Give the backbone structure.
Amino acid sequence: MNDLPFGFSSHGDNDDDRDDKAQNPGAAGGFDPNMLGQLFNQLGSMFSGMGSGAGGGAQSGPVNYEVAANLARQQIGDFTPMVDKEASAVADAVRLAEVWLDEQTTLPAGITTTAAWTPVDWLENSMPTWRTLCDPVAEQMARGMTDNLPEEARTMAGPMLGMLSQLSGSMYGSQLGQGLGTLAKGVLTSTDIGLPLAPDNTGVLLPEAIARFSEGLDLPAQEIIVFLAAREAAHVRLFTHVPWLKQRLLATVEQYARGISIDFSGMQDLAQGIDPQELFTDPEKMEQLMGSAAAFEPKTTPDQQAALNRLETLLALVEGWVETVVSAALGDRIPSTSALTETMRRRRATGGPAEQTFATLIGLDLRPRKLREAADLWRKLTEASEVTVRDGVWGHPDLMPDSDDIDSPAGFIDSVIGGGTSSFDDPIAELERTIAKEKEERGDTGEHGDEEDDAGR
C-alpha cells in the first residue's frame, strides 16, 4: 500500500533519508544456481586440504554455518536499509500496543528495546537460535551416517569415512542457508514463526516485509502495523515472564532430534555408482551425492511423533493465547482486527516459508494445527473465570492443557475453576502439603514415629 503510516515505506519508494539500495556483498539479486557449482569446488578443496592436514574452511560443529550464512545472504539479494524514522515508527507502534495489552493480561510488558530489521538483520540476529535448533538434528544425522553405514559402503568409503561428518555438515549448511534466505524475506516480526528468535526483551518488526504484506490486503496500513506490533509484544510477554516456555520448546526439538534414525537402504546402490575418490576431483559426483540425500531421510519413530505432538500443542497454545489477548485489546479500537486475525490464522495453517524450512531441515512441521481450538479454549476460560486465572495457567507446565483438553475444553476449564492455579505458585509448599496429607491418610503421627525409633534402638 502507498503512503504507509508510522514512517514505513514500500520496497520501491524513493526516500531522501534512505540510501539508494543496500546490496548484499557478492549477490546480484536472487539465488544464483552457479553458486552450487562453486560450493562443490570449495568442498572438494576442503577435503583435499584435510588430507594434507590443512583443513581450512572446515566447520567446527555439525553444521557449516559459514556456508549457510553465505547462501542465505545470496538468497536474500537486494534489500532496503532501515533508517532512523523506521526505528522510531516501530517504537511508536509497540508503545501503543503495550498500553492496550496492559488492560487484557496480567503478564507485564516484556519489551525494553525495539528495532526495525532488514532481512539480513533478522538472519544475523536469529542465527544463535538456529544453531540451538539445528545442531542436535545435524549431530544425530552425522552420527547415523558414520555409525550405521552398510558394511559394503563402509569398506568402499575407506579413508573418507572420517570426512563424512564434514560432508554432512556442508550438505546441511547449504539446505539451511537456502531455507533461511527464503524465510528472512517473508517474516513480519521476530516471533512470526512462534519461536523467540530475537535477543531477550527485544521487539522487532521488519518494515520491508510488512509493506509487501500490506499490499495484498485491502485494509488500512496503520491498523496492520499496530496489529503486528501487538502480536509481537504479546509473544514477548509470554517468553519473558513464563521462564520455562522457551526452554520447553527448544528441549522438545532436541528430544525429537535424539530419536532420529536414518534409513540407509539406498546407500549400497549409491556407493556402487560412485567412486569415493572421485569426490575429491569431480564436483559433479558430489552434486550427485547431495542430490541423492533424499534416499537417507530420517524415519519418524513413535517417540519422535510424541515429541512433535507436544510441540504442535504448545505452539498452538502460545498462538491461541496471543490471538485471544490481542483480539481483546484491539477489537474495540481497530476495526480490521477480526479480518487480520483470520488472515494470520490462514497464514500459519496453510504453511508458509517457515513451515517449509522446518519440514526440510528438521523434519518438524511448525504449523499450530489446533490454533483455532486453542484460541477458543483461552477465550472460554477467560469468560468462565477472569484474566488472572487464565494467565495463571502459565505458572507451571503441569497446569497447561494438553491436546485432548484443546479438543474438549469443558473438563479442563472446570478443573481450573474448581482447583485454581495457586497451588503451583510455591512448589515446595505444595510438596510439604502433599507429604502431610499422605501421613494423615496413613494415620502417622509424630509420637508414632518416635515409638518406632525407640523400638529400633
